[in-house]
């Protein structure tokens, strides 16, 4: 290149590090263009694989493979994670990190003492563990609370401004989600309660423990998230609740298979709640090439 060429030493445009808004736009587009695959295909396939594993229809390399379980969970969580990403400032990051530590600590105590969830232990390998607690625990638990929080904000509307209404409703919604999750997980054999219990093998103490954990988690999230910014984001991010769609499809299907009709009915109520948010017309779930 000639000596006088001003672009001789200019960095290639392709090597420029994307800004945070640019990266966010790319992630938004990626999730938006794959909504059906993420929110419908993954949970349906996941439910089939989990049930097949529980029924002994899959060979050991595939049966309850912890890598596939964690990978599938992360993919289904991606709409929520991408949706909330612009709101995670330093304050929110510290709060969420604290909740992750809390989740590990309370699970560690629960496994060794039976408090606050009741006597239980894991049966299925859910991936790497630290002191017996799955490393992926925050990925399994915290998004459930976030989903409940977002759903309640949308359904409550103006009433969500009042903490005395907002917080108890979100906490109750989190516990209701466990009415769907725990019976399905016990039926699959993820974990077990040796003393059994009246709710499809789940003791009432488990739900009391969830009241405690839901209260702690909801109070922290409510304190560290900017609710006004969150509502603004929800206006422009139609896929933020797609993880809850996955939750309803996967765990309702599992509960139906095992005859946990009450748990499946609660899952159906969440489906009705999602429809009432008016964010799930047929168009977003049609692959772009078919529109």
Summarize the structure.
The chain has helices at residues 20-32, 35-54, 66-84, 90-113, 137-156, 163-188, 204-224, 227-236, 242-257, 261-276; strands at residues 121-122, 129-130, 133-134, 191-192. The chain is an all-alpha fold and 291 residues long.
How does the SSE layout of this entry go?
Blueprint: H1 20-32, H2 35-54, H3 66-84, H4 90-113, E1 121-122, E2 129-130, E3 133-134, H5 137-156, H6 163-188, E4 191-192, H7 204-224, H8 227-236, H9 242-257, H10 261-276
Antiparallel strand pairs: 1-4, 2-3
Helix pairs in contact: 1-3, 2-3, 2-9, 3-5, 3-9, 4-5, 4-7, 5-6, 5-7, 6-7, 6-9, 6-10, 9-10
Features of this protein?
291 residues, mainly alpha, two-stranded antiparallel sheet, 4 strands, 64% helix, globular
Q: Strands of the largest sheet, in order across it? A: 1-4
**Alpha-carbon distance between the termini?**
47 Å
Helix content: 55-70%
Summed up, the domain count is 1
Q: Based on CA inertia axes, which overall geometry fits?
A: globular
Average pLDDT number: 92
Query: What is the gyration radius calculated from CA atoms?
Result: 21 Å
N-to-C series of helices and strands? HHHHEEEHHEHHHH
The class by helix and strand makeup works out as mainly alpha
Kindly state the number of beta strands.
4
Major sheet characteristics: 2 strands, antiparallel
Beta strand %: under 5%
Instruction: Give the number of helices.
Output: 10
